[in-house]
Amino acid sequence: MSEAPGAGRTGGAEDVRAVAAELAAAAGGRTLSYMEVCGTHTMAIARHGLRQLLPDGVRLVSGPGCPVCVTAIGDLDRAVAYARLPQVTLATFGDLVRVPASRTTLAEERAAGADVKVVYSALDAVDLAAAVPEREVVFIGIGFETTAPTVAAALIAARDRDVRNFSVLCLHKTMPAPLRTLLEAGETPLDGFILPGHVSVITGPEAFSFLPAEYGVGGVVAGFEPDDVLGALLALARQETPAIENGYVRAVHPHGNVVARQIMDKVFVPCDAHWRGLGEIAGSGLALAPAFAAFDAQERFTVDPGEPLEPAGCRCGEVLRGLIDPSDCGLFGRRCTPQTPIGACMVSSEGACAAHFRFRDLV
User: Fold this and answer.
1) pLDDT tier at 91 (50, 70, 90 boundaries)?
2) Which CATH architecture has domain 68-174+258-300?
């Protein structure tokens, strides 16, 4: 496991220009296509106008790195169904409140009288349940390996504190699996991945070792400063043999966070999960382990979410697969804006459509 170029630089404008020049030399006029699979990278790339610094022939596309964006419509419909139960308080992170489900949003349900509360952590939801023992508090657990350990810790706390009116709608997903799906589909020719820094803090870079071993595609774990991202692209362009490199050594340990993974393993088991734009991916989700089944909202409440309906004209799924840029969607910036979102990719602060719209003069 090597250290990617740019990892030790200071991140100033001079460094960014220097890395961009090195990238142009390393690309050598080749046509290269890379994908970032982290919502924070997506926003950083747009905010700093990094696509404008790429040499001709080097293309950077966004992938399924936004956990809100990849949450399936049917799962959102289930959350809405829980919110409509009179005895339930639904606790969620703020981004999810405005994401359109098939027929409504959690924000609209709250305006109609549903008890939907925004919390900043899963532990806040446990505290909320402890404070109102007469109500059932359902927390929507979304996110990748980055947030799953915190939800696991909250579930352990709820068990240890005997907070029996707390449960979780577990929609967590794991990151390596969708990369396999993208490569096996072959829709988007890719020469490498900018790998997610936050996820890699937990998993370690070796979680992505299958990319060069099985698919002949390299990857570089990157931080979130402009020179981090450009340095990752430079490392990819310089690879003579596909490999996994760590360009975020200041935060990512070669073995990741072993303690966080142990907590996850105690609370969760792998399951199949449905991803927006990618369909069902075997073993890509996290379900509650039998020891925590009493906290499973799907076991505790019986609801009929109805048939899921995708929003007409929305091409969010194609954006998440890297098939199109957000501006290629006919709704982008017209009917679909951050104020009036039609698709999830325009709602989340990590969504590709939201990033492209907000920083459209720099993309």
Assistant:
1) very high
2) 3-Layer(aba) Sandwich (3.40)
